[in-house]
Specification:
Oligomer: heterodimer
Order of helices and strands of chain B: EEEHEEEHHHEHEHEEH
Structural class of chain B: alpha/beta
Largest sheet of chain B: 6 strands, mixed
Distance between the termini of chain A: 10 Å
Largest sheet of chain A: none
Number of strands of chain A: 0
Structural class of chain A: mainly alpha
Radius of gyration of chain A: 22 Å
Strand content of chain A: under 5%
Radius of gyration of chain B: 19 Å
């Protein structure tokens, strides 16, 4: 099953995290910074437990994930469509490429003020930020993936009788799928940034909301705790959802070997 | 003028119908301000069930000619007709096997073979029929045990055999083969030559392949069309009347290969077209 090397690296990684917590605890015990600014791991854990049992944590995790699931699905659909257009039309590509690259360089939090102006303190505003944050990455990766399809596939498909209107579904998207998957993963990450940024300001539930609530109550334990939860979910989804799908695709396409 | 209507030697069956006719076909490419003549005007006929090999050095336009027949490019002059109908674009009636296998990695072996069938009227929306047909083609190339395998799991020779099955499955009128064998080792090639001849005798397919290997030309072709380089023109057509299946290592095949080679290299160019 797991190779010897994987087992060993798992040990190293566990040790690394234990070390981080140990150093953190030691710094706290040294008492150099007051504990309301710099809580111990135990205090953070306790605060998270309280948030959990007061029914704050789970609804917020759920709210952020649901927003992401909806917003990201829309973003993925738009990004795929635009990417397909860019990948198949050179004119579209030259026009839209710089625009989307530019939008991608914009920090996701920069979408929050304009979404406040446009949508006020509403749920749509959060969706807006998620969509604007993740669409460019998906579109760029899709178009790049399509432009790198070996022309031979397209010729083979044409001789085998595939008409132009069937090309996207039968050849172009499947051939570009490994690249598209990488783009979706990146888009999800940007969307996640955007979602939490937007929730900071305009929400009554969600991870961003809990972060801001922690700040308003001067509760460093809560702020750090929610940051950890946000990291944890980001990591879990990246590794165990998108990572697994991406790897499966790459193995099937022969771009990566099975272990 | 040259040899286009020569009688087929070997089999003394009834005269076979003309499948493919190339009349005054030429190709020039515009390279910046320069005009490059890739193919001088030529005449050629390919008969039903015939295996024709285009043979010549690289740059003689033989692959260009194959692309014209496939419909990827249009000839600069002249017309190519398949069963009397002019060729204007690529189509399933002239399937091409490429130098690289061009199989789709996102599909399993059998799904690759089924790919072209999905566009065939009698198979459309009938996955079970498609699968059965694909399976029988895989059997023909001795890969029936690999139908669920992924493309990257196959060896080079197996990939080319899947590509062959995929090209044959939609039952093209003409099978075009663009040097699909040089990347393989001698042993694998020998087997592929055997498979190809086996399919030829079983299905009576009309096949045109392109090669710069005189042995391959002599082993596979009923007729070998020898091309000269730049601009490509037909120098000579040689009939190989040996019985099938032919073995690539047969001395008689080697003898014909020698004749073909000599034709290309030595002798004065007395058979100019145009």
């Amino acid at each position: 099953m797991k190779s010897e090397q994987a087992k060993r690296s798992f040990l190293y990684v566990s040790f690394f995290y234990l070390l981080i917590f140990a150093v953190w605890q030691m710094l706290f015990s040294a008492g150099l910074i007051p504990d309301y600014l710099f809580p111990s791991p135990v205090q953070v854990g306790k605060r998270l437990w309280e948030l959990g049992s007061d029914d704050y944590l789970l609804p917020s995790v759920k709210a952020t994930l649901v927003r992401m699931a909806m917003g990201f699905s829309i973003a993925a659909a738009i990004g795929l469509g635009i990417g397909l257009l860019m990948g198949t039309s050179p004119i579209m590509n030259s026009c839209l490429k710089s625009l989307f690259l530019g939008l991608q360089t914009l920090p996701t939090a920069a979408w929050v003020p304009i979404s406040l102006l446009l949508f006020g303190l509403s749920e749509q505003g959060i969706y807006f930020v998620i969509i604007m944050s993740s669409t460019p990455a998906v579109a760029i990766a899709t178009s790049a993936g399509i432009l790198h399809i070996p022309p031979l596939y397209l010729r083979a498909a044409r001789t085998l009788g595939t008409r132009w209107y069937a090309m996207p579904v039968r050849v172009i998207l499947p051939a570009a799928l490994p690249a598209i998957m990488t783009g979706l993963k990146l888009g999800w990450t940007f969307g996640w940034h955007g979602a939490v940024s937007a929730e900071l300001i305009k929400s009554t539930v969600g991870l961003g909301f809990l972060l801001n609530m922690g700040r308003e109550m001067n509760d460093a334990s809560q702020v750090i705790g929610i940051m950890l939860v946000t990291i944890l979910f980001g990591l879990l989804l990246d590794r165990f959802l998108f990572g697994v799908i991406e790897r499966r695709i790459r193995i099937r396409w022969g771009l990566e070997k099975k272990e | 003028m040259n040899a286009s209507v020569s009688k087929s030697t070997g089999q003394s069956a009834a005269p076979r119908a003309v499948k493919l006719r190339l009349a005054n076909v030429s190709k020039t490419f515009q390279n910046g301000t320069q005009t490059v003549e890739a193919l001088a005007p030529l005449e050629l006929e390919v008969k039903e069930g015939e295996y024709v090999v285009f043979f010549g050095p690289s740059g003689c336009g033989k692959s260009t000619l194959l692309n014209l027949i496939a419909g990827f490019e249009a000839p600069s002059t002249g017309e190519i007709t398949l069963e009397g109908k002019p060729i204007t674009r690529p189509g399933r009636d002239r399937l091409m096997m490429f130098q690289e296998h061009a199989l789709f990695p996102w599909l399993s072996v059998i799904k690759n073979v089924m790919y072209g069938l999905k566009n065939e009227p009698q198979f459309r929306f009938r996955p079970r029929k498609q699968r059965e047909a694909a399976r029988s083609w895989l059997r023909m190339v001795h890969l029936e045990e690999f139908e669920t395998a992924l493309i990257h799991e196959l060896s080079g020779g197996m990939k080319q055999r899947v590509a062959l099955a995929r090209a044959l499955a939609p039952d093209p009128k003409v099978l075009l083969i663009d040097e699909p064998f040089p990347a393989l080792d001698a042993l694998v090639r020998g087997k592929l030559y055997g498979d190809l001849q086996d399919i030829l005798t079983r299905t009576g397919k009309t096949i045109i392949s392109v090669t710069h290997d005189s042995r391959e030309a002599a082993c596979l072709g009923d007729r070998v069309v020898v091309f000269t380089p730049r601009p490509g023109r037909i120098k000579k057509e040689i009939h190989v009347g040996l019985a099938r299946p032919r073995d690539i290592n047969d001395p008689k095949v080697a003898e014909h290969a020698g004749r073909i080679m000599a034709e290309l290299e030595g002798q004065p160019d007395e058979k100019r077209t145009g």
